[in-house]
Write a structure and sequence with these properties.
- Chain B: InterPro entries: DUF4397.
- Chain B: It comes from Naasia aerilata.
- Chain B: This is Cell wall anchor.
- The complex is a heterodimer.
- Chain A is elongated and about 80 Å long.
- Helix content of chain A is 2%, strand content 37%.
- Chain A has 1 helix and 11 strands; from the N terminus they run βββββββββαββ.
- By secondary structure, chain A is an all-beta fold.
- By secondary structure, chain B is α+β, with helices and mostly antiparallel strands.
- Among the domains of chain B are: 98 residues, Sandwich (Immunoglobulin-like), CATH 2.60.40.10; 100 residues, Sandwich (Immunoglobulin-like).
- Chain B is flat, with a radius of gyration of 33 Å.
- The chains are: A mainly beta, B alpha+beta.
- At the A-B interface, strand 1, strand 2, strand 7, strand 9 and helix 1 of A face strand 1, strand 2, strand 7, strand 8 and strand 9 of B.
Chain lengths: 205, 283
């Protein structure tokens, strides 16, 4: 039996320059590895072929949000930040919105959707968001006619003053959704809700 | 090529180093881990790759016909140990049968790559970046997976050195790069090879340097993670209070109703007592 050489140390080619960061520490992820080489003869080198990706093409944007469990079927106009970098809600009570600085649903990263729970007189698009349960189906339609499926993972009712920025906007290794609205307790003097409700959703695979 | 009838088993002894990644307790409670697989053995045929629960053997993910150069999306897994299996997509081809136990750690993203020439193919585990780049930047690193060159340097058009004389299997550190489409130059003793890349704003990516059929080099670029391009400050105002006001006025109506009932009862009792008093006085 010929020995199969395996050099598995996670080596470090040091990237130079001030911007270089230390390599992440290795973790013990693969154990009891067995490699049983094939009997077939060696083949010539091949050209690498990337796997087909279902990432939306450049310029594709989300257009509609569907959450059947709570009767949401809403448009997703673009949302932006104000001069203080605060995310502006949609102008319309009945539409949700997509933050243009976040991922397009289907692309790697968190896609940030937001909408009103109410205004001073009427219930808004996310009036029933607090009723949504983990596992609930969420669909985002895109401008290219395709759609992406998600399921609710969890929700968090957070004080606006202690908004979990890293959890909501931080990096993700796959396509995820964050759906943000307001939540009680309502401050009758300041006339705003003290909390934000954030629904976290993960792709259906 | 000699026939090898016995499986060659090896154990990986990689030290566990706790990562200094701040994760809020709420997210850390049952945060999943992420695994992706990569086929980077240039003379090995396509593979079927599956991830199964160690107990019970339920197949959780199954990838079929992963060609050389194929890097999967991340598969989301509850922390724990899983069985990874790789097998030929087409019987009789030279894809080896590989089995490994994969430990998935909460909040970690890892690439499991089949690397090396077919005759000495092995499994390499690489931890990927899940931390946010500074605002307005991108982050990139090089994994040297070429089986034909053992010393490769990689530099971006803007002059950021991503690898210096990297040997086969070397994993570079992430470096900050300017977002946008650009060219990297792969330098070996036999010359320079340009490769087009597109660094995504707010993202971390890995450039796998791999062999081409011609014997030359190229880059397979994949996203490791991505965040928003500009992080909003704080929460947002998405309520005017109608529902809260309605809820409170409902409470007031209810409270008012109770008050009226109590008042009515009190008046009735007072009336009764009054009548009794009158009666008594009359008596």
């Amino acid at each position: 039996m010929a020995a199969v050489a395996c050099a598995l140390a996670v080596g470090g080619t040091v990237a130079s320059g001030a911007a270089a960061r230390p390599a992440p520490a290795p973790v013990p992820v693969a154990q009891h590895v067995s490699v049983q080489p094939a009997a077939a003869p060696a083949a010539p080198l091949q050209d690498p072929q990337p796997l087909p990706a279902d990432t939306p093409a450049a310029g594709v944007v989300p257009t509609r949000l569907l959450i059947p469990d709570i009767g949401v079927d809403a448009a997703l106009p673009p949302l932006s930040l104000d001069e203080n970098r605060v995310l502006l809600p949609p102008g319309d009570l009945d539409t949700a919105g997509w933050y243009t600085g976040s991922a397009v649903p289907g692309a790697v990263g968190p896609a940030i959707l937001a909408g009103h729970v109410d205004d001073t007189e009427t219930a808004g698009v996310f009036a029933r968001l607090h009723e949504l349960q983990p596992g609930a189906s969420i669909t985002v339609q895109l401008s290219d006619g395709t759609s992406r499926q998600y399921r609710m993972d969890r929700s968090e009712d957070v004080a606006k003053a202690e908004f979990p920025t890293e959890q909501v906007y931080g990096p993700t290794p796959n396509s995820q959704l964050r759906i943000i609205t307001c939540n009680g307790p309502y401050d009758f003097d300041a006339m705003h809700y003290r909390n934000n409700l954030v629904v976290f959703a993960v792709p259906v695979e | 090529m000699p026939r090898r009838s016995l499986p060659f088993t090896l154990a990986l002894a990689l030290a566990l180093v706790p990562a200094a990644v701040a994760v809020s307790p709420a997210a850390a409670a049952d945060a999943p881990g992420y695994i992706r697989v990569a086929h980077l053995s240039p003379d090995t045929a396509a593979a079927d790759i599956s991830l199964s629960a160690l107990s019970g053997g339920t197949t959780l993910y199954e990838l079929t016909d992963v060609p050389y150069g194929g890097v999967s999306k991340y598969m989301t897994l509850t922390p724990g140990t899983y069985a990874l299996a790789m097998a030929p997509s087409v019987a009789g081809t030279n894809t080896p049968v590989v089995n490994a136990d994969i430990e998935v750690a909460s909040g970690k993203a890892v690439t499991i790559a089949a690397v090396g020439p077919n005759a000495s193919i092995n499994i390499k585990t690489i931890e990927d970046d899940l931390t946010a780049p500074a605002a307005g930047t991108s982050r990139a690193r090089v994994v040297q997976a070429s089986t034909t060159q053992n010393s490769i340097s990689v530099k971006t058009a803007a002059g950021v050195q991503l690898a210096s004389n990297a040997a086969f299997g070397d994993v570079g550190s992430y470096a900050d790069v300017a977002p946008g489409a650009t060219t990297v130059t792969l330098t070996t003793s036999s010359g320079d090879t340009p490769a087009d890349v597109d660094f995504a704003d707010g993202a971390a990516q890995t450039l796998f340097v791999v062999d081409k059929a011609s014997g030359g080099l190229t880059v397979v670029s994949v996203l490791d993670s991505s965040t928003v391009t500009e992080t909003p400050v704080g929460g947002m105002s998405t309520g005017g209070g109608a529902l809260a006001i309605a809820a409170r006025s409902g409470e007031q109506t209810l409270a008012g109703g109770v008050l009226l009932a109590v008042l009515a009862l009190a008046l009735t009792l007072a009336g009764l007592r009054g009548r009794r008093a009158e009666t008594a006085r009359r008596a």
